[in-house]
Amino acid sequence: MEELIKKAGILIEALPYIQRLYGKTVVIKYGGAAMTDQVLKASVMEDITLLKYIGVNPVVVHGGGPDINKTLEQLDITPQFHDGLRITDAQTMEVAQMVLIGKTNKEIVALINKAGGKAIGVSGIDGNLIEAEQYKTDINGKQSDIGYVGNIKRINSKVLEIIAKDEYIPVVAPIGIGDDGHSYNINADTVAGEIASALKAEKLMLLTDVEGIKPSKSADNIAPVLTAAEVYDLIENGIIDGGMIPKVLGCIKALDSGVSRTHILDGRIPHCILLEIFTDRGIGTMITKGSV
Ligand SMILES: Nc1ncnc2c1ncn2[C@@H]1O[C@H](COP(=O)(O)OP(=O)(O)O)[C@@H](O)[C@H]1O
Ligand SMILES: CC(=O)N[C@@H](CCC(=O)OP(=O)(O)O)C(=O)O
């Protein structure tokens, strides 16, 4: 009886949040850095499945950087990055495509299905979901050739809308397709930001392996809220660097396109998605357009 009363309490607390998100799209990016153990992965997939059951429309974008690194190292190739983006020669492209589409995507689909959901895995090649061209200019405006890394030209979101219309949950691997028919490797945070923009999502959530964004190198706390202007300052001062750069830029892109809320949160916390969405406390760092 006590257990039932506790569950009813949780449901009552969650009700206004469920109403607010009912029928809306939430884009969830699951980063490779947080995909550490099977129990945690399962808890993320349970949250995503639950969202679908209560009438929210989750769209999953996944990373898999550490898995790509592992396979490259087995082939005696040293992974290299520029501003958090993988330098991708032809062989690395082949490995990235194999790992992201062949391994990570199918693992996530299987985990959602095991949790009771119905997931369909696609890459940006399927239905021309992600039209890409070669990435040429870095964040400082400098010409930079990092191989088969893609810039997103267009998201053809119809394929996601068709999948999500019924009981299915789309799961997207971050590989784009060029006019030349070539595959392009695209950072998964960038893909998530663009997909959230194209779908006019209500929320974008980026799950990673830190609690949120540290506002200084020595801080042991995270910033609960940052504006886009504060984010640009932190990048300029080198406090936001590496893999955090595409995340914050993905959030800002989404905010500029009308996505209401963007969050960077700790995917290592069990049920972090539900904690962020359905409690007053929220977790992680929320990035906003201006001051709130
Ligand atoms: N200011 C910052 N606050 C917190 N983490 C940061 C910051 N700047 C850079 N990072 C780094 O970003 C990493 C997350 O990016 P990444 O490793 O690419 O993860 P994912 O696989 O989830 O995309 C963190 O582990 C952390 O080392
Ligand atoms: C161009 C680029 O950097 N692509 C990424 C795609 C995977 C990814 O983004 O994985 P995480 O989210 O786990 O970092 C890569 O090759 O690692």
UniProtKB/TrEMBL annotation:
CDD domains: AAK_NAGK-C. The record marks K29, K247 as: Transition state stabilizer. It is found in: Cytoplasm. Substrate binds at G64, G65, R86, N185. One of its GO terms (molecular function) is ATP binding. It catalyses: N-acetyl-L-glutamate + ATP = N-acetyl-L-glutamyl 5-phosphate + ADP. InterPro entries: AceGlu_kinase-like_sf, AcgluKinase_fam, ArgB, Asp/Glu/Uridylate_kinase, Glu/AcGlu_kinase, NAGK-C. GO terms for cellular component: cytoplasm. Residues 24-266 form the Aspartate/glutamate/uridylate kinase domain. NCBIfam families: argB (TIGR00761). Belongs to the acetylglutamate kinase family. ArgB subfamily. This is Acetylglutamate kinase. It comes from Mahella australiensis (strain DSM 15567 / CIP 107919 / 50-1 BON).
